[in-house]
Amino acid sequence: MKIVILDGYAANPGDLDYHLLEKLGEVVVYPRTSDAEKVERAKDADIILLNKVQIDAETLAQLPKLKYIGIQATGFNVVDIEAARKQGIIVTNIPAYSTDSVAQMTFALILAVTNRVEHYTQENRNERWAYNKDFCYWDTPLMELAGKTLGIMGLGNIGMKVANIARQFGMNICACTSKNSSNLPEWIQKVSKEGLLATSDILSLHCPLSDDTYHFINKESLEKMKDTAILVNTGRGLLVDEEAVAAALHEGSLGAYCADVMAQEPPSKENPLFGEPNAYLTPHIAWATYEARERLNKQVAANVKAFLEGNPINVVNK
């Protein structure tokens, strides 16, 4: 059984091993694979594993030996799952492996804004505190989270984890979700999209990307938000119209934008968000803690093992 990993470096730059997979077959690992290389590298594989390599219907048609595609991530839009189903290829994903890490990053970004961590670290390096006349030094407003309203778009595993953390900070929590109110904790208020935009002091996006959620945040929705609001996106880059967000930041009609994801990855250096001081941007690292990647690595092997035993799990194209 030949197992080919097409883009292994991001999830495993060398600090993890593949011993669980190696018990299941011959494992070939490529750090990265371009569009021009993917058919040649996958043509003899029974199983391919990938993170961000795009596998469309045209590619699948050139891989008659392929039986299984394991996506090393939760999202599965990189694979044409319907074309795979028609070709009899099982496709699986890895749900919930990064829940704790992404929720942690969500609050790391929020606190970076409310407590101005980067600003005051730099001010200390510039000796502003050392030469201050008072015992403390502060020159920009700070914000306490207690009593503020956190709005959450999407209450899946990560959205719910974020809600639970926010509760410990004493925040009021509202959410736009497909779940029935009767299935929500009493401390989460279900609201409409319009209500979410209007009431949130901090709005955090945790919904899947779909036709309905593409550019959920745009010029029109930004106009419905508080001009002091903090917008957080650790979901998908295309949930947000980045040009509209950059314009709102520039005009002062949005307090801050925090994102670990962008519409294009890697992003263009010309992206207008890079010129905005109130844009807090990290390079898609929320999922990348050692602990999350270790869980991912183990679950990838568990998915392959279950497939080989005839009882596939985490299948996304049934």
UniProtKB/TrEMBL annotation:
Annotated InterPro entries: D-iso_2-hydroxyacid_DH_PdxB, D-isomer_2_OHA_DH_cat_dom, D-isomer_DH_CS, D-isomer_DH_NAD-bd, NAD(P)-bd_dom_sf
Domain (D-isomer specific 2-hydroxyacid dehydrogenase catalytic) ranges: 18-317
D-isomer specific 2-hydroxyacid dehydrogenase NAD-binding domain residues: 107-286
Keyword list, A-Z: NAD, Oxidoreductase
Organism, as annotated: Segatella copri
MF terms in GO: NAD binding; oxidoreductase activity, acting on the CH-OH group of donors, NAD or NADP as acceptor
Name of this protein: D-2-hydroxyacid dehydrogenase
Family recorded in the similarity comment: Belongs to the D-isomer specific 2-hydroxyacid dehydrogenase family.
PROSITE patterns in alphabetical order: D_2_HYDROXYACID_DH_2, D_2_HYDROXYACID_DH_3
